Amino acid sequence: IQYMSLSSHFTSEKCQGMGAEFFNGQPVSELISQLLRAEPYPNSRYGAQCGQQLAGGNSSVMGIDNICELAARLLFSTIEWVRNIPYFPDLPVSEQVALLRLSWSELFILNAAQSALPLHTAPLLAAAGFHSSPMPADRVVSFMDQVRVFQDQVDKLTRLQVDSAEYSCLKAIALFSPGES
């Protein structure tokens, strides 16, 4: 498939000589500059909106509508990003869809961490409707495990203090190297 060669091209171009552009005072390659320019929103946009929503409400727990809206925005920002990165728009639509299907969960986690969303287990569990529509015990356990894994991955990325250029590179690697993450 054509995207395998793109992964190799991305890696080799990233490792070649540095371009004249700078990020945080450091020179970056043209490819990294293009990845950064493709970012649809500033890093703090979602975190700031979420904070405003929590501050405006009577509760410290986000409602399911807010969580679903933020998740949808993350997914839409991923689509906007891939439409603007080098090489992806040149692929046949069937390969674009295949790449997104194989990498959406990694891209979602990276975008959630990059956006500094205050997603914590308690609001997610509350939003899942455990109080209003109980789930079978095995489904609750599975859901809680998935939420925990998601939160752990986001927390690890946050602790690493990954910058925008690094997030852009990680997302490109996740997109163009499906199944190798």
Fold and architecture overview:
- It is a single chain.
- The protein is mainly α.
- It has a two-stranded antiparallel sheet with strand order 1-2.
- The chain has one domain (28-176): Retinoid X Receptor.
- The protein has helices at residues 2-15, 30-38, 45-56, 64-84, 93-114, 121-127, 137-160, 164-176, and strands at residues 21-23, 26-28.
- The model is unreliable at 1-19, 44-48 and 50-60 (pLDDT under 50).
- The longest helix is centred in the C-terminal third of the chain and has 24 residues, at 137-160.
- Helix content is 67%, strand content 3%.
- A hairpin with a 2-residue loop joins strand 1 (21-23) and strand 2.
- The chain is built from 8 helices and 2 strands.
